[in-house]
Fold these 2 entries.
Entry 1:
Amino acid sequence: MEAFSDGVIAIIITIMVLELRVPHGTDLAALTPLLSVFLSYILSFVMLGIYWNNHHHLLHAVSHVDGRILWANLHLLFWLSLVPFVTAWMGENHFASVPVAVYGVVLLAASIAYYILTRALIALHGKSSTLATAVGRDFKGQLSTGIYLAAIPLSLLRWWIGFSLYLLVAIMWLVPDRRIERNLAE
Amino acid sequence: MEAFSDGVIAIIITIMVLELRVPHGTDLAALTPLLSVFLSYILSFVMLGIYWNNHHHLLHAVSHVDGRILWANLHLLFWLSLVPFVTAWMGENHFASVPVAVYGVVLLAASIAYYILTRALIALHGKSSTLATAVGRDFKGQLSTGIYLAAIPLSLLRWWIGFSLYLLVAIMWLVPDRRIERNLAE
Amino acid sequence: MEAFSDGVIAIIITIMVLELRVPHGTDLAALTPLLSVFLSYILSFVMLGIYWNNHHHLLHAVSHVDGRILWANLHLLFWLSLVPFVTAWMGENHFASVPVAVYGVVLLAASIAYYILTRALIALHGKSSTLATAVGRDFKGQLSTGIYLAAIPLSLLRWWIGFSLYLLVAIMWLVPDRRIERNLAE
Amino acid sequence: MEAFSDGVIAIIITIMVLELRVPHGTDLAALTPLLSVFLSYILSFVMLGIYWNNHHHLLHAVSHVDGRILWANLHLLFWLSLVPFVTAWMGENHFASVPVAVYGVVLLAASIAYYILTRALIALHGKSSTLATAVGRDFKGQLSTGIYLAAIPLSLLRWWIGFSLYLLVAIMWLVPDRRIERNLAE
């Protein structure tokens, strides 16, 4: 399951670059209209990188799976697979309100799918398992879900509020996390 | 063989999203024409997820392979590789009769290819092997093949009959399967 | 090296399907112009399947590699990576002479690259190694190279001569090969 | 981490071929406009091959990772993921000055990202670790960074100076490297 998930995330993160359409001009000005596409690409690259890191870390603590887990995992991959689509829509339309909000909807769904996956894994392994301890209360995960929930309507008011909130989530996860460090060290 | 197959299925499931063409508009109405493409994408994602789960489960019981098996496996991957094409054709034409029927043809061929693969594996491992026991009579597999056979001509009459039958197959496999559970637990 | 090569071949074999452009019509007649693209796709799928099988089998007998081997392998992957391009060119032009000949040039180059890889591996492992025995004289490989050499100019005379010769190579490799069987059984 | 990185590099190296657009003509002359795209493809294939080789070699000496390393690695993959884009821009514009310079900017950024990754790994493993010895002073890596730095402004003067310097770096790495050999032999 880990190899398959890693493969899918690796493909998603890479095919996104196919949305960076080669411009016709040959000067730096030809790259200017691509700026918003490029910014969206960076944000999604980081978001998918965070999912890969967390997912990788989560699966390391897994000792067995059942059919429910396999589908909870595919459910997460489904939402992640939509990231290239919403990234391109948001980027090509220079952060228009609706695409920015829809981008948030996909991130929200992915964060809920991740939550479902962790709960299904804890239900299977038991509340006193290493896995349950490693996941903990997953405060960051729940905070992210909350921020996405707020960001979606706020994007419709001002696109940059939504976008800034997505950035905030990314930065929150990029900051070295002692919990992951500890687990990796063990 | 498992790594290669996992890789191919992971790529097929992911490149399908490239057929979700970014719309030009920036409002929710711009997503409306994509609805049928999106529904087709979900159905195919689930179908490929089912194949991945079953294939994964099948290969776990395999102890050795020969040239025949490698080609029976590539034959299955060939039909699965056509799923993105028929998914896009069906979705972009809002479930027109012929594309819905052709979608069924590819699913039918894939289900037959899967059947051939399991028979070749059982022939190689022996009728009393763990693999033969794990596969069993594969009632669900044969039922799926039968449903596809019926769905193809029925799609030409009314597209939604075919589509509903494909959905039925998907739901039939999504319902927790005690047989797989038992094997995974062992 | 094996995982990377498997990954690259899996991606090449799968992205070829992206060249099967979704037709605009919704009847079976809309698929007719795709027939030559589809035939080319099948041929290339089989050819890449043969390379994957042989490559997989070859690497199983490898015990160590050096920089030379890594590059001989990348050289092979380079030519294989051009298969989707020549497949599409040949298919979209309904087997015009020059594209059929150029398709043969890529197959020829890949077969030479495979030969170089096996020689480099034998040079490294020694002429009395298991690998050298497993590869043997590689009569089929050299015959394939010879057929491609003949097929390229003959394609320019009549496209179907070249195409038939490519088919001949494919069938020659598809026929169960006792040499591979024996090695897989061990 | 190695499997994921291998996967991403395998996908990047392969999707580049999607930029080789199938020409409309059916004679050899139809391939002529593709010549610069093809040359760019070869150069980038070799460059990514070098990164794969070095990265593979580097990770073999790694015994443990932390969050910092995972992100230093993703940072490298980010720049490598832009290679198909700049390759296509450079190739489709027949080596216009600005695209050639921007191609160098991506290579420069990737070489700096690789440097950061090696330093982070050495910081984690200690200056007397096998890894630190294996990496050594990485003279070639630093020389490459220097050549890119020079090539970027020189590309704006004459495109072929920049391009020749990129070729020089590629050749420098292709020449058998006793350091890598020694490590692979151990």
Note: The mean pLDDT of chain D is 89.
Entry 2:
Amino acid sequence: MLIRSEFDIQFYLPARTPIVAILNLHPTVEPRVVAADDLRVEHAGPAKDCEGATQLCVEDFIDGFGNRCSRFVAPAGAIRLTGSSIVDASEMPDPQGLNLPLTPVEDLPSDLLQFLLPSRYCEIDRCGGIARDLFGGFKPGWEQAAAIRDWVHEKVAFNYKAARPTKTAMDVFTERVGVCRDFQHLAIALSRSLNIPARYVTGYLGDIRVPYAGPGDFSAWYQVWLDGRWWDMDGRHNEPRLGRVLVATGRDAADVAITTSYGVANLTHFCVESNEIDADGRAVPLPAAVTRMPVQVEHA
Amino acid sequence: MLIRSEFDIQFYLPARTPIVAILNLHPTVEPRVVAADDLRVEHAGPAKDCEGATQLCVEDFIDGFGNRCSRFVAPAGAIRLTGSSIVDASEMPDPQGLNLPLTPVEDLPSDLLQFLLPSRYCEIDRCGGIARDLFGGFKPGWEQAAAIRDWVHEKVAFNYKAARPTKTAMDVFTERVGVCRDFQHLAIALSRSLNIPARYVTGYLGDIRVPYAGPGDFSAWYQVWLDGRWWDMDGRHNEPRLGRVLVATGRDAADVAITTSYGVANLTHFCVESNEIDADGRAVPLPAAVTRMPVQVEHA
Amino acid sequence: MLIRSEFDIQFYLPARTPIVAILNLHPTVEPRVVAADDLRVEHAGPAKDCEGATQLCVEDFIDGFGNRCSRFVAPAGAIRLTGSSIVDASEMPDPQGLNLPLTPVEDLPSDLLQFLLPSRYCEIDRCGGIARDLFGGFKPGWEQAAAIRDWVHEKVAFNYKAARPTKTAMDVFTERVGVCRDFQHLAIALSRSLNIPARYVTGYLGDIRVPYAGPGDFSAWYQVWLDGRWWDMDGRHNEPRLGRVLVATGRDAADVAITTSYGVANLTHFCVESNEIDADGRAVPLPAAVTRMPVQVEHA
Amino acid sequence: MLIRSEFDIQFYLPARTPIVAILNLHPTVEPRVVAADDLRVEHAGPAKDCEGATQLCVEDFIDGFGNRCSRFVAPAGAIRLTGSSIVDASEMPDPQGLNLPLTPVEDLPSDLLQFLLPSRYCEIDRCGGIARDLFGGFKPGWEQAAAIRDWVHEKVAFNYKAARPTKTAMDVFTERVGVCRDFQHLAIALSRSLNIPARYVTGYLGDIRVPYAGPGDFSAWYQVWLDGRWWDMDGRHNEPRLGRVLVATGRDAADVAITTSYGVANLTHFCVESNEIDADGRAVPLPAAVTRMPVQVEHA
């Protein structure tokens, strides 16, 4: 299945501003990339429109989590970040590791231990008791991890207006409302509290073979590590999906902001799309209703 | 100057427990190490005493921050962690980078950008306004960094009883009381808010050529990055000191816990010492009163 | 000056729900009331529209702060709360107690001491140090109180989207954005920290002799107690205004919610108006631009 | 049963300080008072000892909750607060309202509605979901209230060192450790979330007919309102006790501090005792072991 993802993000900057962006696909996706252009940043001078744009010099680097990051310095005025990619994605929805046992901490690779630690938005020093109360009775491993994801999905309501940059997993636990990242932060914190390595993911998750659900955006989900690999989980959608395209992973949203501006940057345009396309590059129409997805159980 | 550092930490474990420890010296200290033995972990069976101890197998690894970490699985019962080192430390107290300018974000090496991000105990998404109000008027760079350190030192009172694992920089800002780590977390958060890369440090800071100040412990301080290197800062002691011995650095205390136990571990003994010794290995007596330290200004 | 205030608030209730409302004018306003009808609550049966409404029985009571509260039990379905009043308001804007000294705690009437305590949204146990740092240098009394109000007005940005029910004064202090109540909570907390009794107020503050500023709503402001009386202050608008009509006062917003529903109540309509009228009951047109208001200094 | 309660509390004040104290017995206890002297405050001049003390003038007032409060202004120097009382307490331990139904909100007396609101340390705007998850399945009324109390008692550990003035119910919920007041705050917040009116109580709870449990102190417990009256509950001790002597009630600890000093007051001595005495005024010896208490079920 071919997935074309693209973005067009524009800011107006009152002053010269260094910016870090994580907008290229994750290096691990490369084997499936059919076509991709790098992040392109154009600048339009001090005027507010984008005409006469000139391309800015962008430097790439790999951060400590293996993400492909970009940095550049934008002069005052209007800037525009664009990029697109086509990946050949699996025809099967998110694989399910049913019945997988918990990997004991002692058997975890050392570089995974960081995904058991507290982080900015996942204050696991605050939720050990809660996690044990709610999920201590489940079988450690996939069953427990899935119970956490299901609980978060059931208890937290989605509301765009309930987003805020300071919101932590425990805020979500008490307020019971949030956006994508909030669902995942709570699920991550509860998972780590039970010694399940969990990390935050940003990427594309378009309406692929599911009915149209509104304007596109970047998506957040999370991954748990069981049986020697990471498994995609999604506290918000909580159903196996097709067409996730990985951009970045980190301990939580603090590590993988789409853009970090070291100065004022006023968002003026934001368009993100991720669609299935056919061999001719035409978008495949979406179904009017949810059709039954195939189930991909890897461990039964 | 020779500094001998040593520790003897004992736990009683009700059950078999994986443990991660950061107790060996930092790899960057190696050129100055005169003698050092690795972390030694002994176990004494299910009985509560330490007789008949047997040595456990300890595996070393380097974490994402470059720290030398250790991991082992301890059977139920009493365990004892010991180690010691002698380093040939500088005769000069912490160098002062007076008047150094702020390095613009765009000129920072990419691997330092993480030290501008929010982290578990340094919620810089909450303190930008505070930092600008209090320190916006200082000259960016050393002057501003030193003003932050001085302010934290002046406003926060030290009290061992005010420690708690969930305490964040903003808690310290409002409660105005804490232990070592709390001073540093607040100073780090305020520094990062003004685009000064700042990281948390654990290590030894004994009473070296200063009067005896009580039983030894590990210490925490922090570092800011200016002019191409890290500079030691210490919101608690706030005076140039001799004999800091680096163990680990990270974004904040969440990254560099002395020990992290994945299970219950009851501390039964804790002894940490760091002293100046002479060529014969004898501890150098401490002065009865503070004597004037030499000043090491590297940039004037 | 005649001020007509009126509201029309409608809810849809999935189930029978007890409700407490604070919507009648405050008893202390009575001497200036020209006309007023009590809160009227109508019910429209299980259908979602309001036709065929029948009036519900409403019981009044005075709460511990002296507010005139109402309680009733609404059956499932649509309900509508309406009311209106005309008061003969002062022609002069909020009086200014310039130079008034702080009343020492020992001279405060005993029933005012509660307005020095911490409350749900004004955690003064967290902001003593902050208040002393920022305002300790001002002359205790009006000058200090006004400095607090001015600071809050300057530092906090208004944004309807930044409202949330759990937001406290310290959240406002760190996030620097909020709605009416948030400005007042922060100002109240800082005032109390410096021993200035401060209480939260809800009421009407229409666009009276100022240009139109958008659809009407209830407003929140606060009062400080100096020289034997309460003085209106407003951290959001921060300019002397005409036509404040008092509904309720309390320690903070927790005490004086417009409506408190003990069950789910979905708001379906909300209209609040407060306008100057002439002797014939016609709304007085608003000026196109701000005209200079008279200044009412009571203590110089 | 005769209970003699007494206190001797001393402070050193660097400067003249207004103080409010709530140290006299609650007015509702009066019918059972055999003997009681009012709070006595002595002052010893600028010297640090208490010799040559002179008695200060103390003014009593009743606060908005019906508590008998005292206020006075203490000159700089040492002050001493003393008082004692003898009450004729019930021979039966705390009555149990087993099976009592919840009183619907609509049937609550209006002056009880305040005990359903959020307050400083009981942020019920944050714990509705938690309360429904944990206790939604219990029968509303005594059964649910007792389930909350039992849960708090089981999940929270007592530790004097875990006290801090800013600790809220949700902090206790996450940290799972605290002192008397913390247990009660969490239980109150959870109770109110389920529409059970709950208030905080301070008073004496000595070791009465139970084994000695350490030096005396004031105690905190809470009360829930069911079937037309308040019932004592105690999340910390969680067993029916003899000899509770009521001093004050409020929404939470913010309302009923033993002493509130408007300035620095250094505690130099603190002694509180509450003991059973015989007719001759001699302390009745305590049992070496817990004996079975009679059960006082008022509703079965």
Note: The longest strand of chain D covers residues 2-13.
